[in-house]
Every structure is written in structure tokens, then in C-alpha cells.
Specification:
mainly alpha; single chain; 407 residues; two-stranded antiparallel ribbon; 7 strands
């Protein structure tokens, strides 16, 4: 009697046969895709390495070890698993031909871990730009970053929105001994920091910590201990995540409302673009409205509609942050969200400046987008499976409020 087909394999066969096998991640040569070490990519890799060894009888030592990074080793291992003959639904797919991590592959090798959604992958892409995990803090006094001290994958700030203080207060309320254990002799100063409500007060505390190497080390080690605690990560996500109250969901909703005002429907790439800007910039409805009105003005001047990628580039040209020193960095990040849809030969300073509606106010930093992007990450939205051919999910707070023209 033929053995019953396992549910994961049955699901993958059905998925591949009845729907597009969506690419979740595609690491191009020289490009690394980094998730949090506590994120779904690390769990997927454990399943991939396990399937390689147990199902395909592969020597996995040739492919490194499971971590939270998708690069050359994982790409090669995906191809080897897809070609080993034990997973027929992977033959002649992107998994076998290019080493892409597809939804079908993910379900086959890591059935207990749901494939990351558009929203989750947008956070993963933004994490790569922020370059910090839950265990990492950055002291920013003396730099162009106004965050004073930032923490974690979404760059929670201790200046501006005082997000770090808000998270620490939640932790201290729910588990007071945790702050004592993490910061030791600095616990009282950590609580004094939590109580700061102005940038002046926050700067005073952090400047004193930065000035003393021993204290600086204790604070860094303290956040390592905090970030390694599941409850702390949950508290962080509750505030900074897609359903949190740190301002990121509100900023994304502002972009949606501004798009809808022109009857434009945000795509997957748009969503990732909105989120990455929300993490780094001060995004408000008045600013997104002005940016999208500028896009509409450009369309009138050109007497044609802009593509989704062209719209994002026009937003980049017309909506910069208040800190002029960060304009170049923001532009370098923005390129990742429109380079898939605009050829590199089109990404010139002249054509970018032509997209600026107010020609009397052109920042000197609004140039070198392509070279800046290459230095920054060189990543593309397509590396994370995003497509302008698919619409983005509507944020929960806006569900049912879509105007008739986009329903």
C-alpha cells in the first residue's frame, strides 16, 4: 500500500499547482539578506539544513551552518535540496534554478513556521537598513542621527518619540527584577533615563554614559541581556510593530490615505517603502499629502501616468527629512524600492532633480542616488519578494475605509 502523503508535501503540491509560487527571498551575488537572529529566517534555515541532511543525504558542512542570513551558502543549499529528487514539486522552479526561497520550499522544509508575510518581510528589509537587532543599541550623540540612543530592529529612539523609554517602562512595570539583573549597578540610572521626557534631559543622561567607558559597556551588555529575553522582544514588538503605537502604523496609514486620495492602490513594494520611511523619518499626513500632490503635479507636467516605481522616486525627490545631513542616506535607501522598475541608466542626478516640483528649493544632497545605494546595501525590493504586480494588504486600522475608487 502506498504511504499517505504528508500534509506539508500535499500543501506544497497544491500551492505550486494552483497559484504562483511566490518568491520570499532571493539573495543575488554579493547581497546578504539579514533577519533578526530571533526571526523566522533562522527557524526556516534549521528546517532547510535538516531536510538537506535527512531527506537528501547532503553533507551540510559544505554550506555553512544555520543562522539568520540568506546569502551564497543558503542559495546553494536551496538549489541542492530542490534538485535532490525528494521534493518533486520543487523541480524546475525558481528554488532549483536560482536558489530562491519560495513559499513552496518554505512549507516543505519548515512546515511549523508560517512563511513570512509582506508585512513581516518589510520589517526584515528595514532591519537590514537599520543594522541593529534586539540586542543592539547605538549611541548617536555627535552624529547626524537625532535619535540620541537607538535600540533594536526598528531603530527605537530615545530622542524624538522617546520610544526606548516607553518600552523600558513597560518592561520595568511587568518584570522589575529584569532591569536590575540586566543593568546591575546602573539600574537606578536606567530608571532615571526611563523617566526623561525631553531631549535635553535624555541627552544629559546618555552623554554621561557615553563619557565613561565602564558605564558604556554596562549599558551595552544590559541591552544584550534584555534583547535575549522573549518577553522583552514581545514588549518591543507590541510598541514598534505593525499593530503598535510607536507611530509606524500611523505613518503607513498616512501614506495609504494620501495614495487613496488620488485613487492609487499601494503595491507590495509601496508598503515596504512606506514602512522603511516610517522607521527612519518623521512621517505625518500633511507631509504625505504634499508628497503625493507633487507626484500628481509631475504627472500633469509629463502628461502621462507614472508607474508605481516612478511614483516612489518622485516621492523621494519631494519628501526629505528635516535633517539635511540625512537626505543622502534616505535617498540611498529609497533607491532599493524603485530600481527594479527603473533602469539604472535612468537614475541620473538631472532626471532626479527634474522630479522636484519646487525647483527653487533643491537640497545639495539630492544627488548620487545610484552610487549611494551601492554603498548603502545594494539591495532591491525584489530580493525580499516584493512586486508591484500585487497589491499590498490594507492596514487593519483602515480596513473598510477604502474609497470607492480603489475597492
Amino acid at each position: 500500500m502506498r504511504a499517505a502523503m504528508s500534509l506539508p508535501i500535499l500543501f506544497a503540491l497544491m500551492y505550486s499547482a494552483n497559484a504562483e509560487d511566490i518568491v520570499l527571498f532571493q539573495a543575488r551575488p554579493g547581497i546578504l539578506i539579514k533577519d533578526s537572529k530571533y526571526g523566522p529566517v533562522a527557524e526556516f534555515q534549521k528546517g532547510l539544513f535538516g531536510a538537506a541532511a535527512e531527506k537528501c543525504d547532503l553533507d551540510t558542512s559544505k554550506f555553512g551552518r544555520p543562522d539568520h542570513i540568506i546569502g551564497r551558502n543558503v542559495t546553494r543549499l536551496v538549489q541542492a535540496v530542490a534538485a535532490c529528487g525528494r521534493f518533486p514539486s520543487l523541480r524546475n522552479t525558481r528554488a532549483e534554478t536560482t536558489g530562491a526561497v519560495t513559499a513552496t520550499l518554505w512549507q516543505l522544509v519548515a512546515p511549523s513556521v508560517p512563511p513570512p508575510t509582506v508585512v513581516q518581510r518589510a520589517y526584515i528589509m528595514s532591519l537590514g537598513n537599520e543594522a541593529t537587532d534586539y540586542t543592539d543599541i547605538e549611541f548617536n550623540l555627535g552624529t547626524t542621527d537625532p535619535g540620541i540612543m537607538t535600540w533594536g530592529p526598528q531603530g527605537a529612539t530615545s530622542g524624538q518619540a522617546f520610544q526606548v523609554q516607553r518600552i523600558l517602562k513597560i518592561i520595568d512595570r511587568d518584570n522589575k527584577p529584569l532591569i536590575d539583573a540586566a543593568f546591575g549597578s546602573e539600574a537606578s540610572e536606567a530608571r532615571r533615563f526611563m523617566a526623561t521626557r525631553t531631549e535635553k534631559a535624555t541627552t544629559k543622561v546618555i552623554a554621561a554614559v557615553m563619557a565613561d567607558p565602564a558605564r558604556r559597556r554596562i549599558w551595552k551588555e544590559g541591552f544584550v541581556k534584555l534583547g535575549d529575553d522573549r518577553a522583552v522582544r514581545s514588549a518591543y514588538d507590541d510598541l514598534m510593530g505593525a499593530s503598535g503605537t510607536a507611530g509606524i502604523p500611523e505613518a503607513i496609514a498616512d501614506f495609504y490615505r494620501s495614495y487613496w486620495a488620488h485613487c492609487w492602490q499601494p503595491t507590495e513594494v509601496d508598503y515596504a517603502f512606506f514602512l522603511d520611511r516610517a522607521v527612519q523619518m518623521d512621517v505625518r499626513q500633511a507631509k504625505t499629502d504634499a508628497a503625493l500632490n507633487a507626484v500628481a503635479e509631475i504627472q500633469r507636467r509629463l502628461e502621462r501616468s507614472l508607474s508605481a516605481a516612478e511614483r516612489r522616486r518622485a516621492i523621494a525627490a519631494n519628501f526629505q527629512g528635516g535633517n539635511t545631513q540625512m537626505i543622502g542616506d534616505r535617498l540611498a535607501r529609497d533607491v532599493a524600492f524603485y530600481i527594479d522598475g527603473i533602469g539604472e541608466n535612468e537614475l541620473t542626478d538631472q532626471k532626479l532633480i527634474e522630479l522636484k516640483v519646487n525647483q527653487s528649493e533643491i537640497p545639495t544632497q539630492l544627488k548620487g542616488e545610484l552610487s549611494g545605494w551601492r554603498r548603502r546595501t545594494g539591495q532591491k525590493a525584489s530580493d525580499f519578494g516584493f512586486s508591484d504586480a500585487r497589491l499590498a494588504p490594507v492596514p487593519a486600522k483602515l480596513s473598510g475605509r477604502e474609497p470607492a475608487c480603489v475597492r
